[in-house]
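Notes from the 1:1 (GR / supervisor)

We went over the backlog. Supervisor wanted to see one worked example end to end before approving the batch request, so GR pasted a single chain during the call. The sequence is below; no edits were made to it. Supervisor asked that the structure be written out right there so they could see what the output format looks like.
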Amino acid sequence: MKYVAKTLYGLENVLAGELKNLGASDIRVVNRAVLFSGSREMLYRANYCARTALSILMLIDDFSIGSSDDLYRKALQIDWSEYLDSGTTFSVVSVVNSKLFGHTAYPGLVVKDAIADFFRNRTGSRPSVNTADPDIIINLHISGNHADISIDSSGIPLYKRGYRAGQSLAPLNEVLAAGILLISGWDAAVPMTDPMCGSGTMPIEAGLIACRIPPGKFRKQYGFTRWKNYDDELFKTVKNKYDGLIRRSPVRITGSDISEKAAKQALENVRNA
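Structure output shown during the call:
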């Protein structure tokens, strides 16, 4: 299968290195993302272990279009029964940079209609749209006359690790913190301190790296756990493998802040992690 790992600008090569170490193949760096191939197990590994990924998308189709009619027709040709059924809820998230559409939200509505019509034509009923908590998140990306349709395997963005109980006014994104540490070359061979730690994101991410704790360790849910082909035993195998590498930190990691409130939040977040 082909996948797209989205990340922050400047972290593409770091993420590519992570995916390579996790066993991905056909790796290609693009703007704010890394394309790669792999098995379902590789998809689970990337979600659970990649520190600099924002989300992992599974590509299901890509094609050229010249109009909204083309988009509808080609989206209708996808066998949506492989991914959802009439009882599944879904949403369509679109990113559009094309002169073909006057309103960037419109292509998402076209794909939504195509999915609904696919099931209505086959079964007489259609899946419901749920933008708050959908079972399946469809990702539509259009650049010029090229369209990609993917399924978001992460659901809640991967930077939301699950350990944050409180945060400062402008918290550092967890993916950015991990990326800075990995770019710096810090590998837990020497102590690390952050004298302006805010709510503790940098020290905590350093702790995860030093202790070899997968960044997905604290998450309760992934998008792929709601998929029709979800393999719970396979995901447990992935988790057990990487959880088995966890160790105590070999070095001292510290943080401080001029704000007493921020320091208290950092301590609470550290305890959660």
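Supervisor's comment: The chain has a mean pLDDT of 95.
Batch request approved.
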